Amino acid sequence: MGDEFVLDWGALVPLVVHSTKVKIIEAMQWINRPLSATELKHVFDETLSLSVVSYHLTTLQKWEVVDEQRSRQVRGSTEHFYFFTDAIRKEPLLRPG
Fold first, then answer.
1. Distance in angstroms (rounded) separating the CA atoms of residues 85 and 95
2. Cβ atoms < 10 Å from Cβ of 80
3. Is the dihedral of CA 11, 58, 83, 36 positive or negative?
4. What angle, 0 to 180 degrees and rounded to 10, lies between the N-to-C axes of helices 19-31 and 50-62?
5. What local confidence, expressed as pLDDT, does residue 95 receive?
6. Rounded to whole angstroms, how far apart are CA atoms 80 and 77?
7. Three-class secondary structure assignment of 25-71
8. By the 8 A CB rule, do 71 and 80 touch?
9. What is the pLDDT of residues 35-87, one digit of tens each?
10. CA–CA separation, 86 vs 41, rounded Å?
11. Does the reported pTM lie above 0.90?
């Protein structure tokens, strides 16, 4: 103990944050509305399976990054739509002028 060090966040974050979660967050920010796992799968040109997108979306919900905004019945299943939690969203900065 007592040995101080500086944590290199730039080196750490890419190792612990999964690229699929980053893709989901970027897509949700770009599209700017609640999205389902099915919709996100289509956004990614179906390069990711529905189960992979669903898994990472559920993890983001557990981490309180997104929450369920609404749901609907689709062919005997329930489609859930998620968007950023209030804690994650910030109001845009207003520029003077």
1. 25
2. 19
3. positive
4. 80
5. 63
6. 10
7. HHHHHHHCCCEEHHHHHHHCCCCCCHHHHHHHHHHHHHCCCEEEEEE
8. yes
9. 999 999 999 987 899 999 999 999 999 999 999 999 999 989 999 999 999 98
10. 24
11. no
- Asked whether the beta carbons of 67 and 85 are under 8 A apart, the reply is yes
* Domain topology for 9-84: Arc Repressor Mutant, subunit A (1.10.10)
Nearest Cα to Cα of residue 38 among 96, 80, 89: 80
pLDDT of 47: 87
- Residue pair 36/82 in contact by the 8 Å Cβ criterion: yes
Q: Which of 37, 77, 72 is nearest to 57 (CA)?
A: 37
